[in-house]
Amino acid sequence: MGEYSSLRAEIHHRITLLLTLAGTGITVAIAVTGAIVAHPQWVGLYALLLVAIVLYVVFAILMDFNIYHLTKRVRELEAQVNLLAGERLLKWETDHGVGSLLKNFWKRYRSRCRL
Question: Where are the domains of the chain?
Fold first, then answer.
């Protein structure tokens, strides 16, 4: 249960970082866009905006990838605990977590495409 608790805390921490990154990234993009509008002849501002967007996208993808792997391990732990207990004691990540939501979405999408 210690690993389960620490992984859940890590997931929450990384989601908080991702949201903070989103707020900061949007603020920086708006500020640089405003500077570009005010001084369109400054080519360096265009490069700065491009670098900021690329860094934001790369960091967000890496963070999302990491969160996905953490939630995958939490789902595995839930399955193991539930198997040992003989009943579904832990089920949040399996039923409502990001990984399970995406898995259910793709199952529904594929079943609709086959019709």
Answer: 2-114
